[in-house]
Fold this protein.
Amino acid sequence: MGRSPVEGGRDWDGGEAAMEEQEPKNAPRRRFSRFQLVVRPDEESERIAERIREALLRSGFELAEAPELVIAVGGDGTMLEAFHRYYPKVPEAAFVGLHTGTLGFYADWKRYEADWMIETILKTEAPRIVEYPLVAAIFEYKDGRRHRHLALNETIVRSKTLSTFVVDVWINGDRFETFRGDGLILSTPSGSTAYSHSVGGSILHPSIAALQVSELAAINNVEYRTLGRSFILPRHHVLDIYPMHPDGEMLVGVDGNVFYAQGVVRIQAHVAEEKVRFARYRDFPFWQRVRMKFLGD
């Protein structure tokens, strides 16, 4: 057992907390039979994906549009694509990733472990299922439309031009601040290791159901003040963003899917009731992922 480097620190005794990620309550454990692949369009990823496809089909798995298991072969962008392609249709599907690039936070397997991954999927009777929080952002428009977007990583709102993005920020019905700058990032715990981290946001463990708000190039001077730091809202807290521009124009990015919005009168964001499921065929603790991504092996 390891010993805390702090004098008087207690031993790490493992147990339930050692699993790092929690399984959903009453989650049935069973062998998957239907799968689907989402593949980054490069030669290596497509070659590995074909090996996976052939091996699973030979073993009796069914390639289906309503899969139980979605395998992403590529990078984190491929996993985000897989999530947005299949989660809306099959929210109970579980995701697993094989990484073929240089960085991959969501992937449990590396390119040279493809055969090991295939063997493990085929011999595992029932993988462990873990859940990660999602963030919901509801865009309300002048004409009464309401569009709800779920993010696995983050939703970004910013000015559509080089002009200053000005919004009023409210928390739980109380005015918090007027933000002036380039934009805001609304990230999930798993997304806290992405764009939010690059602008100084904190890293959150995915067992914490929370929404992190990070600023992009905030204006802070004697006339205009913002918090100047990211802040974190727990489950059941509600963030309201009111655009001050009369046209309600902005660029929006949801997990890298970018669109132009006009006539927005309010954005309401909170931790979603829904969660995304990942199939853990082997242990790969969250903080080990963080260490490998930012500090190296």
The longest helix spans residues 43-58. The mean pLDDT is 91.
